[in-house]
Amino acid sequence: MAGIKEECGVFGIYDLDGGNVVPSIYYGLTSLQHRGQESCGLAVSDTRGERGNVKFHKDLGLVSEVLRQDVVRKYSGDIGIGHVRYSTTGASVAENAQPLVLSYVKGTLALAHNGNLVNTPELKWELIQNGAIFHTTTDSEVIAFHIARERVHSKTVEEAVLKTARKIKGAYGLVVMSPRKLIAVRDPYGLKPLCLGKRGNAYVIASESCALTSVSAEFVRDIEPGEILTITKDGLKSNMELAGTKKAHCVFEYIYFARLDSTIDGVKVYDARIRGGKSLAKSYPVEADIVTGVPESGLPAAKGYSEESGIPFAFAFYKNSYIGRTFIKPTQEERESSVHLKLSVLESVVKGKRIVLVDDSIVRGTTIANLIHMLKEAGAKEVHVRISSPPFLHPCYFGTDVPSNDQLIAASHSEEEICQMIGADSLGYMQTDYLEGMAGGLPLCKACFDGKYPMDIPDYKDADFMDIVKC
């Protein structure tokens, strides 16, 4: 996929036996690296030490670059959280790296956030009027400030978290750490994933189950939509006061975001993508010699298309794993050149063949056009494109960085026009009605395709107000 950028990943762990959790945070974040490659960090505390003794380290870069061995050795603790970031609100600068750590009158608070709020301006304005000074341009800092403010008037930090969660609107998977507690919070719609694992006497919270596996933790369950789960030395305590009846899980976790070996809300991601490919084969059959996918995200859907159609699956591209993902390139020209550095065509596989090329989306259309050109240059007779998501027509307000409509090729062109523009012999998109079946029957947020948002989106039109609270 090119153009749609990852969300963030969060990780938290509390070892009730007092073991050092820093290595686990490192491995957990490494397994979530696909969710964000701009910055990362960790915050840890020793529950047996002085209250408020939270240490943290964060910076721009990959996990292996920021949490180097010489850095990690300086930190230890039995409770901690971590974060990998792709910016959906706020610039890609070191100040916006997470976790956020606040020292305030009641002690110290650390927070890591995946998602995006839709009422950040009004929440930020409320804080500014009370004298708050912001050090980042993220909505995550707004959440942290509100928790800290509520904590002053609450008996416990989890009560402060509940009061804050009642105010915020949007999508969020949060891990919050006080010096003696680890708290997980999931938005009431279940837009962002969050799960619980256990390893011996240690509890683990992560955006995806693959992070649990990486630290040898057993998957226990998903955090329920609207749940606040508090982990203390006495065990687990769940609060479901935020939970509602309406659910809207982000469809892109199953199409693209999540790692293949993850299970989210009871649905295996690999199986979902196979089902998506099978639906494409039923909807858009074609006579062809081989089916192939755009590495890596298009490969499972391509396998599903092959299984349903009976057309053999083949690898048509070699991927250079040492080239960074195309989305982090700052200009379109650099993104396009990166495609050629990243992928090369296996000429002996494609020469003289009619090819079904499967990918997870078309955003601007430039990447898929380059790939089709490369295939035909290598001797492919025909290239039939199949996309395992519907056309992008609407913006996302919940943490998926869909470009503005003027950059979305499907917003201003018909499928026939797109087919001609990218140089394909035919084009077929996943039908919106098939998405729930792909995701195992889960209720989904598909607003980027159909414009039906699960909640009201505030319309902030006052330019002066937006300048003050710009995030």
Structural write-up:
With 471 residues, the protein is of the alpha+beta class. Helices cover 31% and strands 25% of the residues. It contains 18 helices and 23 strands. The strands form six sheets. The protein has a seven-stranded antiparallel β-sheet. Strands 5-6-7-8-12-13 form a six-stranded antiparallel β-sheet. β20 (354-359), α13 (366-377) and β21 (382-387) form a beta-alpha-beta unit. α4 (120-129) crosses α5 and α4 packs across α18. The radius of gyration is 23 Å and the shape is elongated. InterPro entries: GATase_2_dom, Ntn_hydrolases_N, PRTase-like, PRTase_dom, PurF, PurF_N.
Name its key features:
471 residues, 6-stranded antiparallel sheet, transferase, iron-sulfur, EC 2.4.2.14, elongated, 7-stranded antiparallel sheet, disordered N terminus, disordered C terminus, alpha+beta, PurF
Low-confidence stretches: 1-6, 325-330, 461-471
- The strands making up the biggest β-sheet line up spatially as 3-2-4-1-10-9-11
Instruction: Name the assembly state.
Output: single chain
What gyration radius follows from the Cα positions, in whole Å?
Answer: 23 Å
The helical percent reads 25-40%
Relative strand content: 25-35%
Round the mean pLDDT to the nearest integer and report it. 89
Backbone structural class: alpha+beta
Task: Give a short account of the largest sheet.
Answer: 7 strands, antiparallel
Tally of contiguous helical segments:
18
Shape: elongated
Query: Got a strand count?
Result: 23
Give the N-to-C terminal Cα separation. 26 Å
Keywords: 4Fe-4S, Glutamine amidotransferase, Glycosyltransferase, Iron, Iron-sulfur, Magnesium, Metal-binding, Purine biosynthesis, Transferase
Enzyme class: transferase
Catalytic activity: 5-phospho-beta-D-ribosylamine + L-glutamate + diphosphate = 5-phospho-alpha-D-ribose 1-diphosphate + L-glutamine + H2O
GO molecular function, one term: amidophosphoribosyltransferase activity
